[in-house]
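Please annotate the following for my students:
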Amino acid sequence: MKGYLNCKIYNSDATAFLVKGNIIEKIGTDEQIQKELSELDECIDLNGMFVLPGFIDSHMHLLNLGQYLNNVMLSECSTTEEVLEKVKNHMESHDSAWIVGRGYHGDLNKQQLDAISTEKPIALTRVCGHVMTVNSKALELAGITEDTAVDGGQILFDSGRVEENAIYLIHEKMPEPDDDTLKEYIRIGAQYCNAHGITTIGSDDFLSIVKDPKRILNIFEQMSYQEKLTVRVNEQCEFENINQFAEFLDDGYTMDVGNDFFRIGPLKLITDGSLGARTAAMVNPYHDDPSTKGGMTMSDEDIEMFVKLANKFNMSTICHAIGDEAVDKVLAVFQDTVLEGNPLHHGLVHCQIMRQSQIDQVLKQKLSCYIQSQFIDYDASIYKERVGSVLAKTSYPFKTLYEGTLVSNGSDSPVELNDPLLGIQLACTRKSIHFGGEMSQKECLDLDQAIATFTQNGAKQLFMDDRLGYIKEGYIADFVVLEEDITEKDLSDVANTRVMMTVMDGKVVFER
């Protein structure tokens, strides 16, 4: 057994707790817990630090995160010149077949990448993951010409810009990582999560790097049974087509199959693009670029077919739908397919650009909402320009949604690198830290609500709130130790709090 003493526990007067195996056995005073310990048991003095349930990132991409951390990371580059310099330096110091990077903002073009190399393929993915810029060599290897067309995607050959479903043409030509490399990506990504207090994730991985869901499924199952996962993974299952999904169901997989380390979660559909890249599907043209409305990546028929098939197998569907047209399409299907009270937790991922009528339907049907408050940091600087002041008033309606239905929080990592403390701060302040601007203050969550989106609501969203999401007797020992009590800090300073220890399943998976 382990006794954790001399701490402040969130929402509790207790100062200590006892962990037996992987379960929180008892919560009480230091004296009460010390009495339960023998000379053979471990006693940990937390020196007055603050204990919260382990954070739950309810939507991210674990494999992509590990891959991103292993390739050219561009998220900290503030100018195009910095991006190009970093790519050039990487190419000169690494002997790899392809130069792969991710995380840039703004726009790049083929000519800029050709100036670095026309002999080695270069593929750089925008921070949102919905746009890629490639050089001439990458276009050549992918067989892309001026006449190449892809359903649900777009190719701007002259600039080397590849959008949405067309990105798969590039991915197919990249060297495919072996199983050991994929396992290493999972390990690296999980380690990053642990360092930020995360013990459980909802993760979309099946098509993120390779296009064989069975291969990714087998790897996760192996790692879970071998107890090599340091985060609990609730897999948000994405498929290339309906036949692939049907085969998965025929093999006996559906929601909740698995164990507490790796479980099958909802079906995941990506129905449009991103706001930053102007590929999210809008009813009206973008306010700052009337030449485009973005576009859908799935047909109405395919969305309906996937949702109805999932329903037959008691599997929920969660839909990436950022633009208000995409939200319309998804809600039209949910209108006739979601049972009263939404027991399966069908829902929307992102909940960004929404009209009031759409918000009203979400609340009426109790649809689950997977928000990413970390997006506020960048989006606060662009969203009014993108969608106009009228639509901006009802966009990112996090408080309204929280008060009327189930809202969990996440990062969509590696779109934003996982940082629940930053997510909590931005949910409360709705003020950008790095890019400027703010969002409607009436939609600010209070601190307890923001914490709940990363703890108890996350557990409920993933159907695990009977054992996760609380520091409670009988619950699994997943918790995070913070250097300071964030309930006593200014809301604008929450993100500066340090994670000192992360415990998952009773085991220390991160310690500063």
The chain has three domains: 2-54+474-511, 57-62+177-461, 63-171. The longest helix spans residues 179-195. The chain is about 30% helix and 20% strand.
